[in-house]
Design a protein that fits this description.
Strand 8, helix 7 and strand 9 form a beta-alpha-beta unit. The chain contains eleven helices and twelve strands. Strands 4-3-5-12-6 form a five-stranded mixed sheet. The chain is rod-shaped and about 105 Å long. The chain folds into three domains: about 5-90, Winged helix-like DNA-binding domain superfamily/Winged helix DNA-binding domain (Arc Repressor Mutant, subunit A); about 90-160 and about 260-290, Periplasmic binding protein-like II (D-Maltodextrin-Binding Protein, domain 2), CATH 3.40.190.10; about 165-255, D-Maltodextrin-Binding Protein, domain 2. Helix 1 (about 5-15) packs across helix 2 (about 20-25) and helix 1 (about 5-15) packs across helix 4 (about 60-90). It is about 45% helix and about 20% strand.
């Protein structure tokens, strides 16, 4: 039976004119090349070469089958390229959980790049202020803020230290003036969260008791929209608000409100190429965001 691998030896000898030169190209011994050529000729019962002291010359029949062997080689190479390309093609669905503000600032912008690089990968973005259970498969990966997750089954890497400060619309600052210190913020109307137990609301209650709160909202995007609309000043993440030219940072970042951010997944999930691709692109989006901002934040390698 014909061994298709013998075509490699036939073509190598036909191109180089000798078994010695062919053996160097194929990185095998000269005797192996000679043996495989003889085996091929025996299998098809056709003499393909004339053996001469100066080398191997194709017989008329060898000349006739040479184009066929070349086409077979092209087909095999195309097949190998197709298999390699298929192995590189990523597909599947990734469920990513994070808060709405991080989804808007980092995850969604990264999805445009993902679409270009891996069009068959789909990402379901789950926005919530509450943690999902990754170990139980409620999501594949999460960008979380707050204390470091400690569940043993999770793979956790520090992403960013998110600093926060007060921001107000520029026209309000022009009207009221820049505050000299925290106490001077009392003359600014404030926009706050609806959650009285949130870290920012507790800070406001402690440091600015009695300050007028003109608007409350349950999501960061709504708080940002309220500030942009001129309803008041609010505590916002510096990474996001510093990139909004219509807002002015009123004070240096508030150290007590620094919030660490984490990339959280499971070992099984991060070993899947399509999930790894999403993680890498989100991390790169954060890196690019940091590069455009003042040096208020730090980023380290993701999971």
């Amino acid at each position: 039976m014909l061994d298709w691998n013998d075509l490699r030896y036939f073509l190598a000898v036909a191109r180089t004119g000798s078994t010695l030169a062919a053996s160097k190209d194929l990185k095998v011994s000269q005797s192996t090349v000679s043996r495989r050529i003889t085996a091929l000729e025996d299998a098809i019962e056709v003499k393909l070469f004339v053996r001469k002291p100066s080398g191997y010359d194709l017989t008329p029949r060898g000349q006739a089958v040479l184009p066929i062997a070349q086409k077979a080689e092209e087909a095999m190479l195309a097949f190998a390229d197709g298999v390699a390309a298929e192995s590189r093609r990523l597909s599947g669905t990734v469920r990513l959980s994070t808060v709405e503000s991080a989804a808007n600032a980092w995850v969604i912008p990264a999805m445009g790049v993902l679409r270009e690089q891996h069009p068959e990968v789909r990402v379901e973005i789950l926005t919530s202020e509450h943690y999902v259970d990754l170990a139980r498969g409620e999501a594949d990966v999460a960008v979380r803020f707050g204390p470091k997750p400690t569940q043993e089954t999770l793979v956790v890497r520090h992403l960013v230290d998110m600093l926060e400060s007060f921001y107000a619309p520029r026209d309000m600052v022009d009207r009221l003036g820049m505050p000299k210190d925290v106490a001077d913020l009392a003359r600014y109307p404030l926009v706050a969260s609806t959650d009285d137990n949130s870290l920012t609301n507790r800070w406001i209650a402690q440091h600015l008791p009695g300050t007028e709160i003109t608007q409350r909202a349950s999501s960061m995007s709504s708080i940002i929209a309220s500030v942009r609309s001129g309803l008041g000043a609010a505590i916002l993440p510096c990474m996001m608000a510093d990139g909004m030219p219509e807002l002015v940072r009123l004070l240096p970042p508030i150290e007590e409100l620094t919030t660490p951010g984490w990339m959280v997944t499971t070992d099984e999930a991060r070993r899947q190429p399509h999930i790894r691709a999403v993680i890498d692109l989100v991390v790169e989006q954060i890196r690019q965001t940091l590069a455009r901002q003042p040096a208020d934040l730090t980023l380290v390698q993701a999971a």
